[in-house]
Design brief:
globular, 56% helix, 5 strands, three-stranded mixed sheet, mainly alpha
Length: 557
């Protein structure tokens, strides 16, 4: 009887072999010894027998492998082709009843439509506010061409990143991210370089958020104060008349004007003392960036799960922005004239030498390469990953085109110049505009909830790499957060130009994480497989040169 219970092959091993194989996970279905009973039925609504003969044979195979060796020996554990798929795993009871295993990975997967809109929602960020400005810098026609071309290049590089873990043979890369792939090919240098450039994109985004939060809070406070105190703005700001007023904030680009733009207020009593006092304490650059320091404690939370619950505000904000742009375009109408290379009084040429400013903005606008592997892991049908990624990029590109083209075309020229379009196109509308006030309110609350999430990502990556712990101590986290907040305050105080911040950070992180590292990883992988050909080598080398040129050009614009 003892011999019948003994495995056919002894599981006695040397200490060295045991250390190599590691400890056994009692929940691992590949080493679990199943109790086999011929299945008769499955518990469920259907009383008839639902277990096929093939499933019974498969169960017999697993039982056979379990008899070859003990449960602590992985040497003769069932191979992958013997183990059933997650949706086919059953636990068989001695009563002949098969219970389907619940809570498998399959049940937590998302359909393609959810995955596509998750990518769309993640990619659309603050860059959408700068797309009209970028098109103005490049010229209307050239801007549209560059937007389409850059979107296609970014899609291809993102495809390389998505496929890179699966191209590594003989290694389990199921839980790898792109920094792990870089470490595999380039060692510590690849891992740290990908980390540094990823930090550039995250901290750059946090600085942009701080500038925009200061902008939105200022305009929201201005709207509320004016409404509560019956304060009206005079016509000193150069802009259009009517219900949908559009303004040009800077007088130095207004043709034929020789006065200084300033904002004057008057109330019903004619006493402007309280107004001037409010303006002293409510300044877009002098005081508001300092008031926002109250957000610093939110960055010190050990977990960011609370703020993750409000990510739906991003979708609401983007949808409302699209509605706002549509309404404004319908009311203002289109104002276009095509001058291919010559600058006119009110219009910009269709092709301008400032186009690298748009490429820098678009590099960050289409950037999702550092988290695309994680997003795609939750896709129910992994074979459709490339298709779903392409559809998501198409939707993002169409959204950017829609907003950028409509704002540029509807901008009233004359009387205003197209050069008046601001890096944040909401600044071209006065603070008294109700629809724009709602948009700023939505965006402000969205950024207040997303800002701690970005800080959490920065902390996890930096602290994890340096200390091996995401939260080494409150002091370490506080010092890091003070540095991040301080950078935001300084930029919002002295250089609140989100267009330039976005293009510099986008071109910098894009150099490594979009162009150089994915192209090098792809070429090395093909070379090791013996499949690298000179057309592919030339094209991917061109991508590297393109990323370097994109970054260098930002310093000459």
């Amino acid at each position: 009887m003892e011999d019948d219970c003994r495995p056919l092959l002894s599981s006695e091993q040397t200490g060295e072999n045991r250390s190599l194989r590691g400890s056994t996970d009692s929940l691992d279905i590949k080493v679990k010894r199943p109790f086999y009973v011929e299945p008769r039925n499955i518990v469920g609504d259907d009383p008839q027998e639902r277990v096929s003969a093939e499933a019974a044979i498969l169960n017999s195979r697993v039982h056979y492998y379990s008899k070859l060796t003990g449960s602590s020996d992985r040497l003769l554990s069932p191979p992958n082709h013997v183990i059933p798929r997650p949706e086919e795993i059953y636990v068989y009871s001695p009563l002949g009843t098969a219970f389907k295993v619940a809570g498998s990975d399959h049940s937590s997967k998302n359909p393609s439509i959810v995955t596509i809109f998750a990518i769309w929602n993640t990619m659309l960020g603050t860059s959408i506010l700068s797309i009209p400005w970028g098109i103005k810098q490049a010229g209307f026609t050239l801007g549209i061409i560059i937007l389409i071309f850059t979107g296609l290049l970014m899609l291809y590089c993102c495809y390389i990143v998505l496929k890179s873990p699966k191209a590594i043979p003989y290694v389990n890369t199921s839980d790898w991210e792109f920094p792990d792939v870089c470490k595999y090919y380039f060692g510590k240098f690849g891992q740290w370089s990908s980390l540094v450039f990823s930090m550039v994109s995250l901290i750059g985004a946090m600085v942009v958020y701080w500038v925009l939060m200061s902008n939105f809070l200022y305009n929201i406070g201005q709207f509320i104060y004016n409404y509560a105190h019956n304060v009206s703005m005079s016509d000193s700001e150069f802009g259009t008349n009517g219900t949908d007023k559009v303004i040009c904030p800077y007088q130095n680009i207004i043709p034929g004007e020789n006065y200084t733009i300033s904002t004057f207020y008057f109330d019903s009593s004619g006493n402007d003392t309280s107004v001037s006092s409010f303006g002293h304490w409510w300044s877009k650059t002098d005081t508001i960036p300092l008031y926002l320091i109250v957000l610093l404690p939110l960055l010190c939370f050990r977990s960011a799960s609370f703020f993750a619950r409000f990510t739906f505000l991003g979708t609401i904000s983007v949808v409302y922005l699209i509605i706002l742009v549509t309404v404004k375009a319908v009311r203002l109408g289109f104002h276009l004239e095509f001058h291919w290379f010559d600058t006119t009084q009110f219009y910009v040429p269709e092709f301008r030498l400032l186009f690298p400013q748009l490429t820098g903005v678009l590099t960050l606008a289409f950037y999702i390469h550092n988290c695309i592997i994680t997003l795609m892991k939750s896709n129910m049908h992994q074979e459709n990953n490339v298709r779903d990624l392409s559809v998501a990029y198409l939707l993002v590109g169409m959204t950017y085109l829609y907003v950028g083209v409509l704002i540029f075309a509807a901008f009233p020229s004359p009387p205003l110049l197209k050069d008046c379009i601001e890096p944040n196109f909401l600044d071209n509308f006065p603070s008294s505009d109700v629809m724009v006030f709602v948009a700023r309110t939505f965006l402000l609350f969205q950024m207040i909830t997303v800002y701690p999430l970005l800080g959490y990502l920065v902390r996890v990556q930096i602290m994890g790499q340096i200390f091996g712990n995401h939260y080494p101590s409150f002091f370490h986290v506080l010092v890091l957060n003070i540095f991040i907040v301080g950078a935001g305050v300084l930029v919002a105080r002295f250089y609140p130009n989100i267009g330039s911040i976005i293009r510099y950070s986008g071109a910098t992180c894009g150099l490594a994480l979009v162009f150089v590292l994915p192209a090098l990883v792809h070429m090395i992988s093909l070379r090791r497989q013996g499949k690298l050909r000179w057309p592919s080598a030339l094209f991917h080398s061109f991508l590297i040169l393109l990323g370097m040129s994109n970054l260098l050009a930002q310093f000459f614009m």
